[in-house]
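Tutorial handout. Part one gives the primary structure; part two gives the three-dimensional structure as C-alpha cells.
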Amino acid sequence: MNSFLSRLGYGPEDRVVVLHADDIGMCQATLSAYTDLLEFGLISSAATMVTCSWFPQTAALCRAHPEADLGVHLTLTCEWDAYRWGPVSTRDPASGLLDAEGYLPRTSEAVWEHADEGAVRTEIVTQLDQALAAGVDVTHIDTHMGTLVHPRFAPGYVDLALSRRLPLLMMRLDPAKARNRDLVRMNPDAPQMSLKLAERLEAVGLPVFDNVAMLPLDRPDERVDQARRVLDSLPPGLSLFIIHPAQDTPELRAIAPDWPSRVADYKAFTSPELRDYVHNAGIHVLGYRALRDIR
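Part two.
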C-alpha cells in the first residue's frame, strides 16, 4: 500500500485521485476555462506555466481565489509553431535552453541533448520563485511534457521539491508498468531511476503516485465516456488524472492543432453528468494542497 495514503487514513483498497488541469495560463482560453472549472468544482488541482503570456492574469485569479489549488508546471519546452515562449532566467545560448529562433526548444529530446544542468536548475527555481512572488500559494511542482524526468535533470527537480517542501509529480514506475510507456522507450533507465527517487521522496514524507492517467489529445469524441473508463480503470492507491482544458476561441484554434480535445476536456469537466459519476464512482478526490499540508 502507498504509505502516504495510510497517513491520510485511507486503506489498502481505497482509490484516491487528484483530478488535475494542466497548462493553465498557456493562453487566454486555458485561463477562462480554469475560471469556470474552479466554480464548477470537479477538478481538484491545476498547474500554471510561468513562461507564458497569460501567467500574470492566472496569478491575479489565484490571489482573488485563495482556495485555488495551483502548482507550477515547470516548462523547458515550447512545442507550438504559431506561438512561442522562452525561458525566464536567461537569454544565453550557452544554456542550451534557446533554439535557433531564441525560444525554448520544441522537444524534450532537444533539451536532454543540449541543455546545461546548471542552467536547468536555475530556470526551474526561477519559475517557482516568480510564481511565489506573484502571490500564488504554490501547492506542488510538475513537469511540462515530462522533460524533467530524465537522469540528467530529475535530481534537480527532486531537490527543488525537497528544499521547498512541495509535492511533485513523480510516479513509482516499476518495470511491469513501464513496458508500454513512451518515457521508457526514450529513457530505458526510467524505472530504476523512478524507484530510487520514490524511495528518497517517501523517506522525507512526500507523496509518490502509484498511477498517472491522461485523456488523449487526439480523440475528442465522447469525452465523458472516456473519462468514465479512465476512472473505472484506476487501481487502489494514489492516482493522478490529467486533463488539458481550454475554451473554444480563435486564439486556441490558431495555437493548438489538438484544440478539439482541449475543448472536449473543458466541456466534460464542467458536465453535471461527469460530476455526478465521479461522486458515485467509489473514489476519493484530493487536491495537491491536502498532500502538501499533511507533511
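Part three, for discussion. The mean pLDDT is 93. The chain has one domain: 3-293.
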